[in-house]
Design goal:
The complex is a heterodimer of chains A (234) and B (395).
Chain A: E1 4-13, E2 16-26, E3 31-35, H1 42-50, E4 55-64, E5 67-68, H2 74-80, E6 82-85, H3 97-108, H4 112-119, H5 135-149, E7 153-157, H6 165-181, E8 187-191, E9 204-209, E10 212-217, H7 221-233
Helix pairs in contact in A: 3-5, 4-5, 5-6
Chain B: H1 3-17, H2 45-50, E1 59-64, E2 67-73, E3 78-82, H3 83-89, H4 91-97, H5 108-116, E4 121-125, E5 135-141, E6 145-147, E7 150-155, E8 160-169, E9 175-177, E10 180-185, E11 190-198, E12 204-205, E13 208-213, E14 218-225, E15 231-234, E16 237-240, E17 245-254, E18 259-268, E19 274-283, E20 288-297, E21 301-310, E22 316-325, E23 331-339, H6 343-350, H7 356-368, H8 377-394
The chains are: A alpha/beta (234), B alpha/beta (395).
Chain lengths: 234, 395
């Protein structure tokens, strides 16, 4: 049984249809890289998969662990084990990083210190969430939150954008750990530069362009993208 | 000048203010509150605990209505007494501190306090005395009418202390509370002042506060209103000398039909002094809140951060931040915002596995969490409890 199946899904945001007839799936022990140029609809797809309000499935179905979750609320999908690491998490006035991690670790039985130490964010624990963070710090905190969620399947949006090399390495290590401890040992990672592929090997690569899924293939597809670029590939 | 003449002079100044309305807040007719109410004043210990007062503190002043209840200090270097006792025992000194920063004729409320007020605390922290535990003050209204204590705090050179005042009232009791507070922070001294208000839907509250901070002194204040009140208006002012610093934080919750007008003002007279004013307003039901903040400076730095959170379609919040630079040497900034809780932030937290209710509570808690540095652990714990209570009452 596939863990997640996206079956011919079209997604509307407001009045606009952003994704058309997209299909893909992820199995156990798969790390799927979702590639595509800016504006292709990658983040929209991840948000729609997790059920983020405002991202509406207008046609097609989404299945998680064999169950149709197309009409389920985000709360339900997250409770089932889906989790989204946001590309740009919001600033949360007055909310300390520690508070969020504490609350999640109380729910999910994890160790805040261990997570913060792994992500190199011990110095950020008593800072306001997102306030004055560098791009790298923001990503590291977001991935720390993802680790504290202990999801069955993580959907990770652009972990390598706007990030210094050191941070990418730390973030990649944490994602690997997350994959290792997750029950299915799988993840979906969105990237437009594929920088993260230097640290994490995908098992499957899909390319999304202009709101449609162009191709899903093996890891070698990434080399094709590096060689020819998205435009030529299209 | 003897005591009698001095009192007469204060009275004369007060009479000039009797018909003077305050430029801020709802104008309250004070006459009905001047009649002595029937009933025996009594302290509701559970209620005062709700505003964080520890009646077992080693230094404490307790007042019920217009009657002083008890005061004591078992902390070396800390004097606590009733204001009348201070004036009678140390008249010459008292004349330098009582009705010096606040004019008894400023408005009808100061006038009423000067003419009819009773009690209030005098606290002195002696030179170089550093006090870890909070000095407590409890002002409780049990039968209503007028409660107008006059409080004076003197923190002598190099001394450091935290004064915690909890003010509350019995349910359904109609009262007017006018607390006059004059605080003096001497050279290299630190005063941290925490005031927690929890009134009822028929009470009117008009505190009048002024603080004088001498060179290198620090005045840190944290004010919270966490319950119903009919009308509340206060606009404390802090005068800063050379290298002095003030941090004035207020968290104000407006519920039901409360009309609240709360501000903080800093006057930077000295060189290199600085002031920070932080205000958080939360308006529920049909509450109206005006959040004022003002920094006037010849020199030094000042920053105002005013934020309002609208929790109902019928509530209203207005923020009025004011900056007055009197020379080019003053660097003054402000930021202000009013709005509802951001849907995106709620959704972000829901995507992290919190329910919508939990997400709202986390964001509200964040909104009311104002960092006040240097508070004793005990006081931090009270504030945490009060933050939780404020969040519960906001939801």
């Amino acid at each position: 049984m596939k863990i997640l199946v996206v079956d011919n899904v079209s997604i509307g945001v407001g009045e606009k249809i952003v994704l058309k007839n997209v299909s893909m799936s992820i199995d156990r022990n798969e790390v799927l890289f979702l590639l595509g140029p800016n504006g292709a609809g990658k983040s929209t797809l991840l948000r729609a998969l997790v059920g983020f309000p405002g991202y509406n499935v207008v046609s097609g179905r989404i299945y998680f662990e064999g169950e149709d979750i197309t009409d389920s609320l985000m709360e339900v999908r997250v409770a089932k084990g889906l989790a989204l690491a946001h590309q740009l998490p919001p600033k949360l006035l007055g909310v300390k990083v520690r508070q969020l991690l504490d609350a999640l670790c109380r729910k999910n039985k994890c160790d805040v210190y261990e997570i913060a130490n792994d992500l190199g964010i011990l110095h950020l624990l008593d800072r306001e969430f997102g306030k004055g963070f560098s791009g790298g710090e923001l990503k590291r905190v977001e991935v720390a939150v993802l680790l504290a969620q202990k999801p069955k399947l993580a959907l990770i949006d652009e972990p390598d954008s706007g990030v210094d090399v050191d941070s990418i390495e730390i973030v990649a290590r944490a994602i690997k750990k997350l994959v290792d401890i997750s029950p299915y040992k799988s993840a979906i990672i969105v990237t437009h530069s594929a920088l993260i592929s230097r640290y994490i090997e995908p098992t499957k690569v899909c390319i999304l362009m202009s709101g449609t899924m162009k191709i899903c293939n093996s890891r070698d597809l990434i080399d094709e993208v590096f060689r020819h670029g998205f435009r030529e590939l299209a | 000048m003897g005591l009698e003449n001095w009192l007469k002079e204060v009275e004369a100044r007060a009479r000039e203010g009797l018909s003077r309305a305050s430029p801020y807040g709802v104008d309250v007719d004070v006459k009905p509150f001047l009649e002595v109410k029937e009933g025996r004043p009594s302290l509701d210990e559970l209620r005062v605990k709700e505003v964080g007062v520890d009646l077992g503190a080693r230094a404490i002043y307790t007042q019920v209505d217009q009657l002083y209840f008890k005061y004591l200090s078992r902390i070396p270097g800390v004097e606590v007494m009733r204001i009348e006792d201070f004036v009678e025992s140390y008249l010459d000194e008292a004349k330098d501190y009582v009705w010096k920063l606040v004019d008894p004729g400023k408005d009808k409320y100061t006038a009423v306090a000067a003419l009819k007020g009773r009690g209030g605390y005098f606290i002195r922290v002696k030179e170089n005395t550093k006090v870890e535990e909070p000095i407590m003050a409890c002002l409780f209204m049990s039968v209503g009418g007028l409660q107008a204590p006059h409080n004076v705090v003197i923190v002598e050179k190099g001394a450091e202390a935290t004064v915690y005042t909890g003010c509350t009232i019995a349910p359904e009791v109609i009262g007017l509370h006018v607390g006059i507070s004059e605080f003096y922070v001497n050279e290299n001294a630190v005063l941290r002042f925490v005031m927690v208000h929890s009134w009822n839907k028929v009470s009117h509250v008009r505190p009048r506060t002024a603080v004088y901070v001498k060179p290198n002194g620090k005045y840190i204040s944290y004010y919270v209103n966490l319950s119903k009140v009919k009308t509340l208006q206060t606009y404390p002012v802090v005068y800063l000398s050379d290298n002095a610093y003030t941090y004035l934080a207020s968290v104000v919750l407006g519920v039901e039909d409360s009309y609240i007008d709360v501000g903080s003002a800093a006057n930077i007279d000295g060189e290199n002094a600085s002031a920070e004013i932080i205000s958080r307003s939360l308006a529920r039901d049909s509450a109206k809140i005006i959040a004022r903040a003002s920094i006037t400076a010849k020199n030094g730095k000042g920053h105002i951060d005013c934020r309002g959170l609208m929790l109902s379609d019928k509530a209203a919040i207005r923020t009025i931040p004011e900056l007055y630079a009197l020379t080019p040497n003053a660097i003054l900034t402000h930021e202000a915002s009013i709005g509802r809780l951001a849907e995106d932030e709620i959704n972000y937290l829901v995507s992290k596995g919190f329910t919508k209710e939990e997400a709202i509570a986390i964001l509200l808690r964040g909104f009311v969490s104002v960092e006040v540095k240097g508070l004793p652990q005990k006081v931090r714990e009270y504030i945490e409890t009060i933050e939780k209570l404020t969040v519960e009452k906001s939801m």
